[in-house]
Design brief:
Helices cover about 35% and strands about 10% of the residues. α4 packs parallel to α5. About 50% of the residues are buried. The strands form three sheets. Strands 3-2-1-9-10 form a five-stranded mixed sheet. The chain has a five-stranded parallel sheet with strand order 4-5-6-7-8. The chain has one domain: Metal-dependent hydrolases (TIM Barrel, Alpha-Beta Barrel), CATH 3.20.20.140. It is of the alpha/beta class.
């Protein structure tokens, strides 16, 4: 019999239920997006490989696809097999309205993890999701490593070996695993208005993992303060990314998509090394244009040119009947007229040479970015062709058959972990003064 979810797991479930869990409140104007129509008439039909869709939002989905040239959505919110697969049935009902244009990914049911029967149950559920409901992949939300607990109420690590049979099942089925590990680096810094993610975390302080000064805490609503007090300790940002890579290397037959630009858009060199070391790893662009866009355009363009065969386009859009998320939301929810500028900001970044333009989700950082103007052949791969490969089971089965041997207990490097001086000063122990 499964034990009740811990508070940490419950909070993780809340995050999962709203997609990738980002919100905030804008405070200062962002740079304006250029009034451009990049390569009009030449852009291929788009596959958005990172979306969160609900059945009641079908009409909105239809309109957004038509308005923005989206041929196909990969719905990462297909849900788990709980309650006899009710979530899967609803996801299938949505997909059936868009034959071949909405592809659902399933998630595990974490309840009962650690019991001997858990892995057999979830492997069988994944088989059913694929064969009976037409699902085409697995989505692992950030609750792994940040909130899910086992039958002993211990936090489940990203590289927990008890999960290996699930990754093996995905490889056997020829389906990819999209995995969200950790969060932006700034989520671990002290939460003050100096934190570059203040617009998000100042609204939802319980999403932060770093210390919160008493003076800042006093400004939050009582309910938010209580949720902050109930936060559970989590691993450091570098430790979580290292755990993820150990897992990739231990499961070379499984094709992983490290969403949000490898979960480390802050460090281009690290993501480059990650892809070099792990032939089974792909990345998506979802909700991180603003982050990797902070790097010099020439460096980012060279990165995309180098890894053009293993990057897929995604936005982290969320669509319901009365709900929209555009990579990240503020206190005022976006409306349908906001969706086209959101997509246009992506086209401007990837297709033009514009300088100092707004990225798609300014609430994730109020700075401008320089566009990278990718070549049409590279754009075709990122916008559409690479996604088709990840949805081709025969392609993934052949890749798994040719995979290199498992690297158990691999020693993997951490990402760079620069901490701003202001943040270091707030977490460093006080210096003793001579008397």
């Amino acid at each position: 019999m499964s034990r009740p979810l811990s508070l940490g797991a419950a909070l993780a479930a809340l995050v999962i239920a709203i997609g990738c869990g980002k919100s905030g409140a804008p405070s200062t104007p962002a740079p304006a997006a250029p009034d451009v129509a990049p390569v009009a008439g030449k852009r291929p039909p788009i596959t958005d490989f990172h979306a969160h869709l609900s059945l009641d939002g079908a009409e909105r989905v239809r309109q957004i696809m038509a308005d923005n040239g989206v041929e196909r959505f990969i719905n990462l919110s297909g849900g788990s097999g709980r309650h006899n697969g009710q979530a899967w049935l609803m996801a299938k009902m949505l997909a059936d309205q868009f034959p071949g244009r909405i592809i659902n990914f399933a998630s595990p049911n974490w309840r009962g993890f650690g019991h001997p029967e858990w892995i057999a149950r979830e492997a069988a559920a994944l088989q059913a999701a694929v064969t009976q409901f037409g699902f085409a992949g697995v989505k692992i939300a950030k609750g792994l490593g940040l909130g899910h607990t086992d039958d002993r109420d211990q936090l489940v690590a990203v590289d927990d070996p008890r999960l290996d049979p699930l990754w093996a099942k995905a490889a056997e089925l020829g389906i990819p695993v999209c995995i969200h590990v950790a969060d932006p680096r700034a989520f671990w810094w002290p939460l003050t208005p100096q934190n570059e993610r203040w617009d998000e975390l100042g609204v939802h302080p319980y999403w932060a993992y770093g210390p919160i000064p008493d003076s800042v805490m006093a400004g939050f609503e009582p309910q938010a303060q209580e949720l902050v007090r109930q936060r559970i300790p989590v691993p450091s940002w570098p430790a979580m990314l290292q755990a993820a890579e150990r897992m990739y290397r231990r499961n070379p037959k499984t094709t992983f998509v490290a969403v949000h630009f490898g979960n480390a858009a802050e460090d281009l060199d690290y993501v480059d090394g990650l892809l070099q070391r792990n032939a089974n790893l792909w990345i998506d662009t979802a909700a991180r244009v603003g982050e990797f866009g902070r790097h010099p355009a020439e460096r980012v363009r060279a990165f995309f040119d180098k890894w053009q065969d293993r990057i897929v386009f995604g936005t982290d859009i969320g669509i319901g009947s009365d709900y929209l998320m555009l990579g990240s939301n503020g206190q005022t929810e976006p409306q349908l007229p906001d969706v086209k500028p959101f997509y246009d900001a992506h086209w401007a970044y990837f297709e033009t040479q514009a300088r100092q333009i707004a990225h798609p989700s300014p609430i994730q950082g109020r700075w401008a970015v320089d566009a990278i103007g990718l070549a049409p052949a590279v754009l075709n791969k990122i916008y559409r062709e690479n996604a088709a490969k990840l949805l081709d089971r025969s392609f993934l089965l052949a890749r798994a058959a040719a995979a290199p041997p498992t690297v158990a207990n691999a020693a993997v490097p951490p990402p760079a972990d620069p901490t701003p001086a202001w943040a270091a000063a707030l977490v460093a122990p006080p210096t003793a003064t001579a008397k």
